[in-house]
Amino acid sequence: MTAIAKSARFKRYKNLEFILGVLLTGGICLAVLFSGLLFPDGGDKINLMARLTAPFTDPAHIFGTDPLGRDVLARVVMGGKISLQVGVLSVAGAVVIGVIMGLVAGYYRGFWDMIVMRFADVQLALPFILLAITFIAIVGGGLTNMIILLIISQWVQYARLVRGSVLSLRDREFIQSAQAIGVKDIHILFRHLLPNLIGPVIVLMTLNVANNILLESSLTFLGLGVDPLIPSWGGMLADGRTYLQNAWWVSVFPGLAILLTVLGLNLLGDWLRDSLDPTGRTSR
Questions:
Q1: What is the pLDDT of residues 68-80, one digit of tens each?
Q2: Cα–Cα distance between 103 and 85 in angstroms, integer?
Q3: Global pTM?
Q4: Cβ–Cβ < 8 Å for 31, 38
Q5: What was the pLDDT predicted at 101?
């Protein structure tokens, strides 16, 4: 197969990957965005007369009901609001802290570089589950504390990524020229360096949103996450594990929501990685 044919096939594959990622992620985001209009009761309406209704047997409960008679579809959509909120806000916080730390460490080197990187090494040496248990034991669970925990655990990734990029750019001609004409350091950092490394940061952000959704669901499943009274995908999985034999839908549909959301975000992240880094586009 010629290089041109390989390139054309690769582009078709990447276009399909992008479309599928947008459809999955966009569909779930739209459902979550309009969840208040679709399900005004928030999925909390209890109807013990309709408990454990099988899916697709009642038009009012397409995905069936849980042990308390609550609509599974409504709770899956409302749970997506919590999972996406945790994923997006935690990544945003980690990016702000990590990018600033990485810029300072890579540009100034010396003492600041040593302090930031040694602190990052200590952070990376801590197993996440140990950090999570310790943090939650000290400050407690809840949505806000979950976001703070994920920020603490992931800012290091952005700091190391940005620092490495800054080290390769700080001695380039355009940076030296800016320094020579007296441009302030803060302008060099945010107007000259940051725009040249934003691509890899965006890719990592996309992948980490998916990863944080998985982490939030896992910790909530273990009882270390958000309040059990708040609908969340991890909490729904935990609630349905005792009903897997006779009411599989209570856990399966939240699990599918996690799978499709993470798959869509990973497809977008993979597409962004290849789109923002032209080298090796035809390597597959």
A1: 888 889 889 988 8
A2: 27
A3: 0.83
A4: yes
A5: 92
